[in-house]
Write a structure and sequence with these properties.
Largest sheet: 6 strands, mixed
Number of domains: 4
CATH architecture of the largest domain: 3-Layer(aba) Sandwich
Radius of gyration: 22 Å
CATH class of the largest domain: Alpha Beta
Number of helices: 15
Structural class: alpha/beta
Strand content: 15-25%
Helix content: 25-40%
Shape: globular
Length: 454
């Protein structure tokens, strides 16, 4: 992976009106992306913009649009639209690129920018490094002539194009009589998702469908499933569905209140794709996916390819090995024969089709895939240099090697810096639950001693 300082796992993020999310910084980022597109051979690039429901979106949409227009780019805003919607529109409506103002699952005080190419794919590490280099360099030579400044337009029909794409799949699913609790995280899915489930005949109970600019992801969505789980059990619903703020992730809660995460969805979708002859070489899963998923898929004769965390790395690995399906435990799932990026609403529709075709209920999945026990630890490390170097610190590596020798291939310890927050994440996995706490305590003590965290 190329060295980047501004871009993280999924675009550029910061507190709104601070750091890289100050309007003047985002304007410059727009100018840099415009210069990047023009360097690819387009004299008059067209870029589609979308945003989630954060209160800072208008400020940053204006700033990004101004920067792009200064580079001679024609900007078309679709308004509030899920991230995968921008990807879909970019690839299907003849745009040279796309951009989304969103900080995904982060709290409302954060915001960010994600970029897409003309095929709807997120930029590669190398392409992001090029944009970052332009951002840090002299951009004056990339400003257009006075008569060549790009226009900034609005086109509300673009949201309809994306919704129509999804409705094509909804028409193939029958949820008549099913009670479904839907949590849209007060985010970008709040309008489209209920219409999709109503079109499938579901009887809906809604959570997180009243965005006000300051409540996105607040106690709702994929990172806060408690309200969804309570409502599913209270109303005796057949299942619940939760999205994140920008709609690229989805998680389910089954009728028994159990979380159905990306690993379980991948298991069902992999079987469905293989049955339909659409799977390709196998399934791509990130290093965070449960070892139990890999073991179960191997039993089914389905190969699993591992990749770093981030749905764009899932896409890169899938393209490399010839797979059409991949995803993350966190709920990013990519169906490459249909989409270029993680799409929560599309994933939900495909899972409904898969369960019907396989003769399964959602609650069957937790019983079908025995999983290793996991603990995920988060350590806040403000120093970015320390955050990046900690996973390879000799003392920590020695501690991990000692424990993994005891786990004898039936568990693992994985340490990585977060690409979206000032955190170091530690995944501890073991077939036997009893050893988890012992490992967690030991690793926590070692990291605390190395970082000075109390």
């Amino acid at each position: 992976m190329s060295s980047r300082r501004m871009f993280g796992t999924d675009g550029v993020r910061d507190l709104s009106n601070r750091g890289h999310m100050r309007p003047e910084a985002v304007l410059r980022l727009g100018l840099a992306f415009g210069a990047f597109l023009r360097s690819r051979g387009s004299d008059r690039p067209r870029v589609v913009l979308g945003a989630d429901t954060r209160g800072s979106r208008d400020m940053l949409l204006c700033a990004l649009s101004a920067g792009l227009a200064s580079a001679g780019v024609e900007v078309v805003s679709a308004g509030v639209m899920p991230t995968p919607g921008v990807s879909t529109v970019a690839s299907r409506a003849g745009f040279d690129g796309g951009a989304v103002i969103s900080a995904s699952h982060n709290p409302p005080e954060y915001n960010g920018v994600k970029f897409f190419d003309s095929r709807g794919f997120k930029l590669s590490d190398e392409e992001e490094a090029e944009v970052e280099s332009l951002f840090e360099g002299d951009l004056e030579g990339f400003r257009s002539a006075p008569q060549g400044v790009g226009r900034v337009l609005e086109d509300g029909s673009l949201k309809g194009l994306y919704e129509g794409f999804l409705m094509g799949f909804a028409s193939e699913v029958d949820l008549s009589g099913k009670r479904v609790v839907l949590d849209c995280a007060n985010g970008a899915c709040w309008e489209i998702a209920p219409r999709l489930f109503e079109a499938m005949g579901a009887r809906l109970s809604l959570i997180g469908c009243a965005p006000d600019g300051s409540n996105i992801n607040q106690g709702v969505g994929v990172t806060h499933l408690e309200a969804l789980r309570s409502r599913v059990l209270e109303e005796r619903a057949h299942f619940g569905v939760a999205y994140d703020g920008d709609g690229d992730r989805v998680l389910f809660v089954d009728a028994l209140g159990r979380t159905v995460d990306g690993d379980l969805m991948l298991y069902a979708l992999a079987r469905f794709y293989r049955r339909e002859g659409r799977l390709g070489a196998g399934v791509v899963a990130t290093v965070m996916s449960n070892m139990g998923l890999e073991a179960k898929l191997q039993e089914e004769g389905i190969r699993v390819f591992r990749c770093p965390v981030g749905d764009r790395y899932v896409v890169e690995k899938a393209l490399e090995v010839g797979s059409r399906l991949g995803g993350e435990q966190s709920g990013h799932v990519v169906a490459l024969d249909l989409s270029s990026t993680g799409d929560g609403m599309l994933t939900a529709l495909l899972l409904m089709r898969a369960l019907s075709a396989l003769g399964l209920k959602l609650e069957d999945l937790s019983d079908l895939v025995p999983r290793f026990h996991q603990r995920l630890l988060n350590f806040r490390v403000e120093d970015a240099s320390l955050r990046r170097s900690l996973p390879s610190h000799p003392a920590l590596l020695e501690e991990i090697a000692s424990w993994e020798e005891r786990l004898t291939g039936r568990g693992r310890i994985f340490v990585r810096p977060s690409g979206t927050e000032p955190l170091v994440r530690v995944l501890i996995e073991a077939e036997e639950e009893g050893i988890l706490e012992e490992v967690a305590s030991s690793i926590s003590h070692r990291i605390s001693s190395l970082t000075g965290i109390a």
